[in-house]
Write a structure and sequence with these properties.
heterodimer; A: 166 residues; alpha/beta; Beta Polymerase, domain 2; five-stranded mixed sheet; two-stranded parallel sheet; 7 strands; B: 408 residues; alpha+beta; Cytochrome-c3 Hydrogenase, chain B; three-stranded antiparallel sheet; 14 helices; 9 strands; 49% helix
Chain lengths: 166, 408
């Protein structure tokens, strides 16, 4: 891997992150960082992600969304949108936190139509609702899966899905 | 479109799936006469909760778990997983290991694309192509077995490198097989591009416009067949792909024929890459011992699997010996939205081949519900019935359909 033999050039990535900070001010959190060449993690306030993603789409040709990763820390849910900015060939991960007791966010399918099935997958696995999604239904779990049981939540136990804990 | 079944219809679950190729996927198709008006795929029949399992297993065991996400691109999964953990460890694996890992990835592309070509042939009633390509695919399967001991789920990768080395004798066998495969597939390509009955089933069928493919975040050969020169190996290089000379293949016609020829040309590119890898294989170990404890951090790795972009996200909390989160996004999921678009406006007879065109890792429909809007009838069609319908329909209608398509 020739990337590791030389010191990676992450100037572009740093510049792009700075550009976001200048444009969105304190909506971009300090925990945002450049992980390596072509990988930038952008932590945002949870009311800013739609604007940030729209900005990326309009300025950096960032229309390709790889997926949306959900995570349960126990205290809150984290959503990560992995988007490829074609103009600079950088994968941006736009990340924010939402409260566990009210897991509702606005959809981004009007900005990035490719997010359709990924939002459904997060809904299926975590129970996070995406307002405005054209067809928010379970994606993977079977029709007879019990309501209100979300397998990737930290408090999920196998018996809850109707399986015996062997 | 709602998935509600009309009151007087019953959805009957069908029995065990065909063992050889197929995995289950369900479609709800609304048809008016012979034209598809809308198509909604329903997936999840092979959902096994692997992301959940990965959180409960050690990093080491997860390497074997993720290999089993997919039988056809198992090395892509395992290799990408190991690459992601290696990034978390901030470790570089020995060059020879890097080369062998890439060798197996490209061999996997060969076996996957030749498998697909056979399946595509089978879907349009061209069983001779199916027989020939699967016979030739055996050459690749034999090589994979020689390298790893397995035809599927090779167990080739581990965190820190690969598990098996390539001897000079193996290298010569592989190079010989490459010459033979190249010769045969060049012949198939020539025949396919000249055979009007085949082209009649592929040209201008299953159109996916370039702008739609981009908008829906399509990946892999499906995307490249719509005129987009996007390939993770070039756009986001990993492993040694920034060193190997190769071309990104794309075709502009946005139809099934493009999807066929993209894969055939990629087959040739992979052969060239395999030759380059073997002729430039560096000396040294294939593996470097990796620490058991994975430090805190997160990493994202992407891989151009045979079907397209594969992504792994792994988060380590630095404390336990199992990952905090493993997120996997397989390429087929990225193309499901595009199938819906391709099916709209197509003939029912083309549904099997259009679905097969994205090379789904849910290879065929085991159960499709067809709702005839004009008569209000709903029925379940198995893939056998679909293929049968396809063949009979094309026997009757091939001539005028082809004329209509060539006009476009």
């Amino acid at each position: 891997m020739s990337d590791d033999k030389v010191v990676q050039n992450i100037e572009t990535e740093k510049q792009l992150l700075n550009e976001l900070k200048e444009k969105f001010g304190d909506k971009i959190l300090d925990s945002s960082y450049v992980k390596r060449h072509r990988r930038v993690f952008v932590d945002v306030k949870n009311n800013a992600y739609r604007d940030v993603i729209t900005y990326m789409r309009d300025n950096w040709d960032a229309i390709h969304i790889t997926t949306i990763t959900g995570m349960d820390t126990g205290e809150s849910f984290i959503l990560m949108y992995h988007i490829f900015a074609k103009k600079h060939k950088v994968v941006f991960t736009v990340r924010f936190t939402i409260p566990r007791d009210n897991p509702v966010v606005k959809t981004i399918t009007d900005i990035l139509p490719g997010a359709n099935l990924y939002e459904r997958e997060v809904y299926d696995m975590f129970g996070i609702k995406f307002e405005g999604h054209p067809n928010l239904k379970r994606l993977l779990l079977p029709e007879d899966w019990p309501e209100g049981v979300y397998p990737l939540r930290k408090d999920f136990k196998r018996e809850m899905g109707g399986m015996k804990n062997e | 479109m709602s998935n509600d079944i009309p009151e007087d219809e019953i959805l009957i679950p069908l029995g065990p799936q065909h063992p050889a190729l197929k995995e289950p996927i369900n479609f709800m198709i609304r048809a008016e006469g012979e034209i598809v008006v809308d198509a909604q795929p329903r997936i999840g029949y092979v959902h096994r909760g692997i992301e959940r399992l990965a959180m409960e297993r050690t990093y080491l065991k997860t390497a074997y778990l993720v290999e089993r996400v997919c039988g056809i691109c198992s090395a892509a999964h395992q290799g990408t997983y190991c690459m992601t953990v290696e990034e978390l460890l901030d470790m570089e694996i020995p060059p020879r290991g890097e080369y062998i890992r890439t060798l197996v990835w490209e061999l996997e592309r060969l076996h996957s694309h030749s498998l697909w070509l056979g399946v595509a042939g089978h879907e349009i009633g061209f069983d001779t192509l199916f027989m020939y390509t699967w016979r030739d695919r055996e050459l690749v399967m034999d090589i994979l077995e020689m390298l790893s001991g397995n035809r599927v789920n090779y167990g080739m990768n581990k965190i820190g490198g690969v598990r098996y080395d390539v001897t000079d004798e193996m290298k010569n066998k592989i190079l010989k097989a490459m010459d033979l495969l190249e010769k045969r597939f060049k012949d198939y390509k020539k025949k396919l591009s000249e055979e009007p009955t085949v082209l009649g089933r592929l040209v201008n069928v299953g159109i996916l416009k370039k702008s739609t493919a981009i908008k829906l975040s399509a990946v892999g050969p499906t995307l490249r067949a719509s005129g987009v020169k996007a390939d993770i190996r070039k756009d986001d290089p990993y492993g040694i792909y920034d060193e190997i000379p190769f071309e990104v293949i794309s075709y502009d016609s946005c139809d099934l024929a493009a999807r066929v020829f993209v894969r055939i040309d990629e087959f040739f590119e992979s052969i060239k890459m395999i030759r380059w890898i073997l002729n430039n294989l560096p000396d040294g170990p294939v593996y470097k011992r990796a620490p058991i404890r994975i430090p805190q951090g997160e990493a994202i790795c992407r891989n151009e699997a045979p079907r397209g972009e594969l992504m792994y996200y792994i988060k380590s909390d630095g404390k336990s010996n199992h990952p905090e989160r493993v997120k996997i996004r397989t390429p087929t999921l990225a193309n499901i939205l595009s199938i819906g678009e391709m099916l709209k406006g197509s003939y029912l007879a083309d549904v099997p081949i259009i679905v097969a065109g994205i090379d789904p890792c849910i290879s065929c429909m085991d159960r499709v519900m067809v709702v005839h809007e004009d008569t209000g009838k709903a029925e379940i069609w198995t893939d056998e019935k679909f293929r049968d319908y396809s063949r009979k329909w094309y026997k009757k209608n091939l001539k005028w359909v082809v004329e209509e398509r060539w006009k476009k």
